[in-house]
UniProtKB/TrEMBL annotation:
GO biological process: DNA recombination; double-strand break repair via nonhomologous end joining; nucleotide-excision repair, DNA gap filling
Source organism per UniProt: Paenibacillus terrae (strain HPL-003)
Protein name per UniProt: DNA ligase (ATP)
Pfam family for this entry, one: DNA_ligase_A_M
EC main group: ligase
Length: 316
């Protein structure tokens, strides 16, 4: 049977630490959410937005080499390392590739690991109505770990894990109710995420240049009324000289005479306005009382829909 891709279950942002013995904690890996579909004949990969990523990660397609199942849908995170810890910037080097030759060349330069944390379908039967505890036991029975295939580990002390992740500057922790069923295209507090650093997807609305090269970005988010709100500027982070050159090339094509923001940016001198088409992922410490990010850091250039670049990222 052909397996149609689904939108995965998402954790809600945590307001209160879960209490009780029915909770487990897992490392929140800073990567790309990927579901692995194998119908017994072929294996395919899709991200959480139903965009196919089979071409981008060919080393994860030999399902029979690590999974003892005739057909299966696995849920997990594809990660890549920057020195000693996972880096979203690194995995995006792989995720945005389109040419087969470039992908083949990148296999050794930017190796990836698939961190599996759930199973939705097994040997012709959906298991989403089973408890997380059952699904994890099933994973332990059928997954054969190897260097680039791992099962995400459970921890009983979520507070200790969160503190440890802080020491290693990791993304955070996900808390899960061990009795929870898997809710396709759902999001609720049976899964909760607790981030060490905040991040969001933002849209570029303006730039500044130095020696004709872009050196900072003015960023914004959309409201539910489709107003484009300025949230701050950023010129530091993980972008390389190649990335800044790419931004220069792309923004040259979308220069505008009009400020796209519905509110006034605190800096407008020497700013070049651009049409809000380019998107980036940004980490930040917090939002100031004036509604701008404190200590923003650009993590990567990423192609996401503007529906993901909303103020709801902050509110939820």
């Amino acid at each position: 049977m052909e397996l149609e891709p689904i939108i995965p279950f998402e954790p809600a942002r945590m307001q209160n630490l879960p209490s009780g013995t029915n909770w487990v904690a897992q490392v929140k890996w800073d990567g790309v959410r990927i579901l692995h579909y194998c119908d017994g004949n072929e294996s395919r990969l899709f991200n959480r937005k139903l965009n196919e990523r089979t071409l981008q990660y060919p080393e994860l397609l030999d399902t029979n080499s690590f999974c003892k199942a005739g057909s299966v849908i696995l849920d997990g995170e594809v990660i890549a390392f920057d020195n000693t810890k996972p880096s979203f910037h690194e995995v995006m080097k792989r995720d945005r590739l389109k040419q087969e030759q470039s992908i083949k060349h990148s296999l050794n330069i930017t190796p990836v690991t698939y961190m599996i944390f759930d199973i939705l379908f097994y040997n012709g039967t959906w298991v989403t109505d089973k408890s997380l505890e059952f699904r994890q036991q099933l994973l332990d029975q059928i997954i054969v770990p190897r260097n680039n295939i791992q099962i995400v580990q459970n921890f009983s002390d979520g507070t200790a894990l969160f503190n440890l992740m802080g020491q290693y500057q990791m993304e955070g922790v996900v808390y899960k109710d061990i009795s929870s069923k898997y809710r396709i295209n759902g999001k609720d507090a049976r899964w909760r995420k607790h981030k060490i650093v905040n991040d969001l997807f933002a849209v570029v609305g303006g730039i500044t240049r130095s020696n004709h090269i872009v050196n900072s970005l003015l960023l914004g988010l959309y409201t539910d009324e489709d107003d484009f709100i300025y949230i701050g500027s950023a010129g530091t982070g993980k972008l390389t000289r190649h990335d800044w050159a790419f931004l220069t090339e792309q923004t040259n094509k979308i220069v505008s005479t009009k400020c796209p923001f519905s509110n006034d940016p605190e800096k407008s001198k020497d700013v070049i306005w651009v049409k809000p088409e380019l998107t980036v992922k940004v980490e930040y410490l917090e939002f100031t009382s004036g509604g701008t990010m404190r200590h923003p850091s650009i993590q990567t250039i990423i192609d996401v829909d503007k529906n993901e670049c909303t103020i709801n990222q902050i509110l939820k």
